[in-house]
What we know:
heterodimer, A: mainly alpha, 0% strand, B: mainly alpha, globular, disordered C terminus
Amino acid sequence: MxxxxxxxxxxxxxxxxxxxxxxxxxxxxxxDFDTKNDLIDCLLNLVETYTICLPKQFESEVDKLMExxxxxxxxxxxxxxxxxxxxEGYGGYDDYDxxxxxxxxxxKVRRSAVKVLVTFIKARLNLSKTTMSEIxxxxxxxxIEHSENVKVEIIICLGLYLKNFVVxxxxxxxxxxxxxxx
Amino acid sequence: xxxxIKENLALDNDRIKDKCLQLYLAVTLAVPNIVLxxxxxxxxxxxxxxxKNVILNFFKILDEQSLNLGHFIxxxxxxxxxxxxxxxxxxxxxxxxxxx
Lengths: 182, 100
C-alpha cells in the first residue's frame, strides 16, 4: 500500500480521535490542564496539516471543524473579561500576560483553533458565505482577547476572511456582514 | 468590528496597532463606502505617527481605487504643516487642492 493512500484511508479514524478530544467537555471536566491544552494544541496542528495536504477529504468536515474551532477560540477559563482591572496587580496589561501566561497554557488552544480557521482559506476550501460570515462574526467578538499572540492571529485571520469575502451590499449576507463590521 | 479595532488601536502595543490597521484596510476594501464614514479612526491614529508604512499603504490603495477622495480633505487640514517632505503626502495634498 502506498503511504499516502494509507493516510487517506485513516482520515476518518484520525477525525474521530480529533473530535473526541477537541471539545470543551474534555477540557473542563478533568485535571492536568496543561497536558490537555498541549494535547489539543497538537491535534489542531494535525488538522492544519491534514487540511493543507488533503483538502478534498476535509472539505466535507468544514462545518464541524468550524464549530469545534469557534468553541475553542473562546476557551479562556482563567481570565475574566468583565474585570477590566485584572492586570493592575501585575503592573498592567502586558505584565499580566507575562506573569499569568506562565501558568495558563489555554492560549495554545485558542491560537491553534484560530490557525485551523486560517487553514480553511489557505487550503482554498469551498466555504459558503454563511460559514464565512459566521466565522467573521465570532472572531470579531474575540477581538477582546487579552493574549497578544492569540489576538494577532485573530486579526490576521479576520483580514484573510474579509479579503476572500466578496460583499454584495444588497444581499442578505452582505447586510448581515456589514452589521458585524460596524 | 470597527469599535473593536478602535479599542485595539488605543492599546500601547505597536504590533497590535500595525495588525489592526491592516485589518482596517481589509474592512475598507470589503465595504468601502460604509467604512469611510468612520474615517476618524484613522485620522486619530495618524496623530500618533505609528505604523506609517501601513497608513501610507492604506492611502495608496484608496487612491488606486478612487475611493471617495473627499475624505482626504480631513488629512490635508490636519497635516498641511507637517509631512511635507514625504512625496506621497505631497501627492495627496495636490489631489485635495485639485478637488478644491
